[in-house]
Specification:
Strand 9 and strand 10 form a beta hairpin. The chain starts with a helix and ends with a helix. It is built from 16 helices and 13 strands. The strands form 3 sheets. It has a 6-stranded mixed β-sheet with strand order 1-11-10-9-12-13. It has a 5-stranded mixed β-sheet with strand order 4-3-2-5-8, sandwiched between helices. Strands 6-7 form a two-stranded antiparallel sheet. The protein folds into 2 domains: 282 residues, Hexokinase, domain 1; 141 residues, Nucleotidyltransferase, domain 5 (2-Layer Sandwich), CATH 3.30.420.40. By secondary structure, the chain is α/β, with parallel strands linked by helices. The structure holds alpha-D-glucopyranose.
Length: 497
């Protein structure tokens, strides 16, 4: 080989080695920046033991303040429910369930035997996008029309006075109750923002909508979805004390001693010793919450800025969007996915069902994660194994923060109910839960259980049974309609008083 050829070969090898060295250095520098940022985020988003206790304690404080009628972000709404289906109800009832991204028409036929359900039908109806912001009367007419079509297929017809169909209304928004079937909408939450409803009575609005289409009905009860879940669970097991929703939104209700509900002190007679309280915990606001810059940005671009802080950190409507915002921050600050990623700029492009699928991707190379990023975000940039691993770590971090905060809420609730072991031996407590996040996001459920163990101790946490109450809100509302229809009418208007 000539010395010239030898020289050029050496030069070439040298250049290749230098390029390799630069590439490896560049990648290492980049991945170390990614790791550093991930570490910083983990520190700011997750709570250590004392942080968890601080959230729980502030939660407890605000629950008491809310029950006393003092300033608190927790509304602690008396549900005015003191009739719970007993299993002795008879007849055919309908219910309308509005709360998440769909609404449901529900039918039940209760037979003669105790607790005998002869027939159930549930039809899920999609809500057209414009109805999340259309005038409230239009939304209600739309629902009434769907409901009438559904009822007719079941043989219901337009009836007069006492023959009118009885409808239960599961309305999953904060309402100040006046009685079991009247109240006032305090505010819209989640995706809904329909003018003309805040301050109005949703029951009247629904009955008016049925009147407009000439199919009058009696709406006998209005319940929050958490109350529906609790009622459905107690129909089968009277020891259930808490109803919880982990879905598009999040919230819980529980059975409280009436003497603790100080703000009801002025109300005259009471039949019962207890009252179901709708906490509206999605609205929990506290300095103890780990909110970061992307949470504040998400909040200010939401339909209800400044409101529903806990819900925005924990529920299905938001976790996908929180994740997208974090990924964008990584792209801009650490060069993830090549740095400039227009695909990551679209709000709402990553949903919680997407992130839950990513979280459940247990393959070594993260192929399914890559597929989801391509199909849902349209991400065309070539992804390395490490990029996909980082995405999985971020998704899990978002779920972990959510589960920690929900666990702190459950721990606070058990303390308020004197069932967390501090007031005597720890009692077994069944929490009935419904909602897509709980039903379909296994990794989230596991994180929730381990967060409960951390905050309460393993022994106490094992006494808490989180029981999935499938279709709980719908079933609760329809059986409540049966219970309310059987109760004397003067009872309905005074319920809980
Ligand atoms: C929102 C509503 C609340 C409901 C929850 C779950 O937080 O304000 O009433 O229970 O979503 O659907």
């Amino acid at each position: 080989m000539s010395s010239n050829r030898q020289k050029s070969l050496l030069l070439l090898a040298g250049a290749a080695a230098a390029a390799g060295f630069v590439a490896v250095g560049y990648r290492t520098w980049h991945s170390s920046r990614k790791r550093t940022l991930l570490g910083q985020m983990r520190k700011r988003m997750l709570l250590d033991d004392s942080g968890l206790i601080e959230v729980r304690d502030d939660f407890c404080k605000q629950m008491v303040a809310g029950l006393n009628g003092e300033t608190s972000s927790l509304l602690m709404i008396p549900s005015m429910v003191d009739i719970i289906p007993s299993g002795n109800e008879r007849g055919r009832y309908l219910a309308l369930d509005l709360g998440g991204t769909n609404f449901r028409c529900v039918y039940i036929k209760l037979g003669d035997g105790k607790g005998q359900i002869e027939d159930v039908k549930i039809e899920q109806c999609e809500i057209p996008e414009h109805h999340f912001t259309s005038p409230a009367a239009d939304l209600f007419t739309f629902m009434a029309e769907k409901m009438v079509a559904f009822a007719k297929t079941l043989g219901f017809s337009r009836g007069h006075a006492s023959e009118r169909p009885v409808v239960g209304f599961c309305f999953s928004f904060p309402c100040q109750h006046i009685s079991l079937n009247s109240g006032k909408l305090i505010r819209w939450t989640k995706k809904f923002n329909n003018p003309g409803a805040v301050g109005e009575d949703p029951v009247r609005m629904l009955e008016d909508a049925f009147d407009r289409i000439d199919f009058p009905v009696d709406v006998d009860c209005m319940v929050n979805d958490t109350v529906g879940v609790l009622a459905a669970a107690r129909y089968l097991d009277s020891s259930v004390m808490i109803g919880m929703i982990l879905g598009t939104g999040t919230n819980a209700c529980y059975v409280e001693k009436i003497d603790n509900v100080r703000k009801l002190a002025q109300t005259p007679r009471r039949r019962r010793q207890t009252m179901i309280i709708n906490i509206e915990w999605g609205a929990f606001t506290s300095k103890t919450l780990p909110r970061l810059e992307f949470d504040r940005d998400l909040d200010s671009s939401s339909a209800n800025p400044g409101e529903m802080q806990l819900e925005k950190l924990t529920s299905g409507m938001y976790l996908g969007e929180v994740t997208r915002r974090i990924l964008l921050q990584f792209a801009e600050q650490t060069g993830l996915f090549g740095g400039s990623v227009p695909e990551l700029q679209t709000p709402g492009s990553l949903t919680t069902p997407d992130t839950s699928r990513i979280d459940h991707d247990s393959t070594f190379f993260g192929g399914p994660t890559g597929d989801i990023l391509r199909s849902e975000l349209g991400l065309s940039h070539w992804q390395t194994f490490w990029d996909r691993q980082l995405v999985r770590d971020i998704v899990r971090l978002v779920a972990q923060r959510s589960s920690q905060l929900i666990a702190a809420g459950i721990a606070a609730l058990l303390r308020q109910m004197e069932r967390d072991g501090t007031f005597g031996p720890m009692q077994r407590t069944v929490v009935a839960v419904d909602g897509g996040m709980f039903a379909h996001y296994r990794a989230f459920r596991e994180e929730l259980l381990s967060a409960l163990e951390r905050i309460m101790g393993a022994e106490a946490a094992h006494q808490i049974v989180l029981k999935h109450q499938q279709d709980g809100s719908s079933m609760g509302a329809v059986t409540m309609a049966g219970a309310a229809a059987g109760a004397p009418s003067q009872w309905r208007s005074e319920a809980g008083g």
